[in-house]
Specification:
Length: about 150
Amino acid sequence: MKRAVLVFVLVSGCAAPDSGGERFRALQAAAKSVCELMADPLPYVGRRLTLKGIYFATPHERLLVDRDCPQSDLRVSHSLQIDGSPEAEAIVDRYRKKHPTVRIPVVYSGIFTAHAVIRGCTEPGCYRFSLEESQLLAAFPRIAVPLGT
């Protein structure tokens, strides 16, 4: 059902001037939050997921974080073969130029992966999780907030 909603939203993108906020809310409603995923992450490894969270960039990586569970974050690795939303990428780029440490609500799609950091351990805390081959589906700048505010 969620996949059908996501496909419908992606295919039926509206042209109205304020449709960006509506499109973002629809994608966000269909997406799983970082906190929901990280509550039990191992069953999702290897699956393509649609996730909502807060975009955060460091000098070395892009992260997807969640205000409700700040201890959890996902490294985001963009796909070189599948383009995301040009509008969403433009929003992120514009805000990064103004505020390099800006937080922007986003929706990403990608393959959820786990890399063991402690050999032989099977607990979720023993893995570093990431979203690979991801694409940015939507970003909503009206609620972008510079870090530290």
